Amino acid sequence: MEPQRILGVTGSPICRSDDRTTREGKSKLSLSDEPVYLDNHATTRVDPRVVSVMLPFFQTVYGNAHSTGHGFGQRAREAVEAARNRIAQSVGAHTSDEIVFTSGATESNNLAIQGIALRPRLKGRHIISVQTEHRALLDPLARCQRNGFEVTLLPPRQHPSRDAGRVDVDQLRETLRDDTVLVSVMWANNEIGVIQPISDIARLCRERGVLFHTDATQALGKANIDFTQIDVDLASFSAHKLHGPKGVGALYVRQSPRRTRLIPLLEGGGQEQGFRSGTLNVPGIVGFGRAVELALDELPTEITRTRSLRDRLYQGIIAADETIALNGPALNDPELRLANNLNLCFGDCQGDAMMLAMPQVAVSSGSACTSVNPEPSHVLQAIGRDVDKARSSLRFGLGRFNDERDIEIAVHAITSALAKLRKLAK
Ligand code: PMP
Asked: Among all residues, which ones are annotated catalytic?
């Protein structure tokens, strides 16, 4: 077969050469000269075990899940409900109805924030969130502000404290007002991997009778999420961050012991209990269910494995140059930082120049979702990094398909790129 030509990060063609089998017998496309993929916070490769359960829903079970008058529709419906149940169970939802399927976390965040803000008879018009949230949360908040809400964005703890990026719960307590209707704090950050004290924040919001939303996009499949223990009202998820397909996600909407009411943003067929009209993406939902199942089955081992790879990556890089600095919270505290995240500041070398100098490694200089507007990271600036330091930083995200060899290649590529750029600068 002709090798398939695809483009590398720098636009140069790279050659798909063979198909290798990795640990646990999973097929891994090993592209001898394909870059090592370390951008798993942006998106992940769909697991072949996910692809295989999706395929029938494109070609044989292609019915509309709401056309239950025939077998095509009934089987599609059953598969959707099985996926919903699986996802609901995995996050400790009381009933599967609390899972509302969407097109991804951007839509889930919009539905959560605007769906609350549009509600009539709210007790006030004050919302609290954090400066380091994703644009898919900050932009709906900005819209609320244009529509007459007051939005307070809390600053996170500053670099270089051990918990840089974390919200100060006492500060949140002092910021809550009688007219605060909603607090939104992401579970884990997509740039610096900081894990927020979600349980404490949820408890505080409950005590004060304020709704609490969390963007858990980077946490699902990476951290334990249990809504029987943590009193969250709304939570956003996306399948493509955990080796599932793109274009499908969910919003958890608590219905017990209290009902969370939302005004839908999309009206039409009244699907998803009226929260989100539109024909369901059956193959995507089936893949999402399987992706969650796999991620949860493998969670404890994957946390240990990716942490060890991440730590090797870090040690390998700083061994070459001790001036390289860590952005975000301490690496050695699992409560503070995602096991698969690393974010480094390369001092005098710009992140974009580093990326060009090491086409063998696919990383990112910020959130992929803001790359249409390539400003230095607002997250790094919010933790106290100046514009130059933010521009000199790179984010590394590890995933299920990375192995030790990837780390070796990456360490070599990164340290060589640094040496090359420094020599050029002299
Ligand atoms: N929130 C966070 C924390 C994210 O990392 C992302 C994806 N970069 C999103 C929201 C948007 O998710 P989606 O791509 O599913 O719309």
From this structure: 369
* Mutate-to-test residue for ligand 1 from 43, 44, 106, highest number of ligand atoms within 8 A of CB: 106
Give how far Cα 346 sits from Cα of 57, 313, 323, Å. Answer: 46, 14, 8
Task: Find out whether the beta carbon of 238 lies less than 6 Å from any atom of ligand 1.
Answer: yes
pLDDT tens, residue by residue, 148-176 = 999 999 999 999 999 999 999 999 999 99
Task: Give, for 318, the enclosing helix (H) or strand (E).
Answer: helix 282-320
Query: What pTM, to 2 d.p., does this model score?
Result: 0.92
pLDDT in tens, 351-368: 999 999 999 999 998 655
Distance from residue 238's CA to the centre of ligand 1 (Å): 7
**What is the strand order of the sheet 126-130 is part of?**
99-102, 249-253, 234-238, 211-215, 180-184, 126-130, 150-154
Beta carbon of 218 within 6 Å of any ligand 1 atom: yes
Distance CA 288, CA 294 (A): 10
Which amino acid is present at 386?
D
> Residue 1 Cα, ligand 1 centroid: separation in angstroms?
37
Torsion region of 281: left, alpha or beta (phi above 0 gives left; psi -120 to 50 gives alpha): beta
Is the CB of residue 356 less than 8 Å from the CB of residue 420? no
